[in-house]
Hints:
The complex is a heterodimer.
Chain A: E1 4-7, E2 10-13, E3 19-25, E4 31-38, E5 42-51, E6 54-57, E7 64-66, E8 76-78, E9 87-95, E10 98-101, E11 105-109
Parallel strand pairs in A: 2-11
Antiparallel strand pairs in A: 1-3, 3-8, 4-5, 4-9, 5-6, 7-8, 9-10, 9-11
Chain B: E1 3-5, E2 10-14, E3 19-21, E4 24-26, E5 31-38, E6 44-50, E7 56-58, E8 64-68, E9 73-78, E10 87-95, E11 104-105, E12 109-114
Parallel strand pairs in B: 2-12
Antiparallel strand pairs in B: 1-4, 3-9, 5-6, 5-10, 7-8, 8-9, 10-11, 10-12
Amino acid sequence: DGGITQSPKYLFRKEGQNVTLSCEQNLNHDAMYWYRQDPGQGLRLIYYSQIVNDFQKGDIAEGYSVSREKKESFPLTVTSAQKNPTAFYLCASVDRGKAFFGQGTRLTVV
Amino acid sequence: AQSVAQPEDQVNVAEGNPLTVKCTYSVSGNPYLFWYVQYPNRGLQFLLKYITGDNLVKGSYGFEAEFNKSQTSFHLKKPSALVSDSALYFCAVRDREAAGNKLTFGGGTRVLVKP
Lengths: 110, 115
């Protein structure tokens, strides 16, 4: 079954901790994206990667980091420097402009 | 810089009536335009896209959208709305000539279809 898999679905983090959100795809797409969704603010781009071993900052990259060591994987680390990390995080792979989204990870800071 | 505006936070429509969700965009070059739908606590699902050619694009579930270059708009339409169309709708744009393939989304419009 092809697609984008995000894990975990729900994640709780204590203040001051780093956490890593997983995103895996088996669609053989080069481009992958991370978005953050907050109520009433739509989707905001955190980081994106056009190819393995390369990535660019999006509009709200501060407090986040990514890696793209494999084509299939684009993990997002939410660091302690992110001041308001509680949100719904969406990963997508893109092929010829069309985005395929995962089911999202809801991160809550407790 | 590229941007998308969805001027309505929510659209209410009675079942069976026409549905329109508005979207305007701004890009330096020519746009690729997309509509996506999101159901609660889920990822986004692709509805349709405009790349080039015919300004009227037909997509999934009876939705269509019309590209209007002079008004920089890409409104989503459905002739007869269903209760099951109630969801959050996002318009997105990519600048065809820009490097990096950045995909930018609008703020979303919640559609509520009442029986």
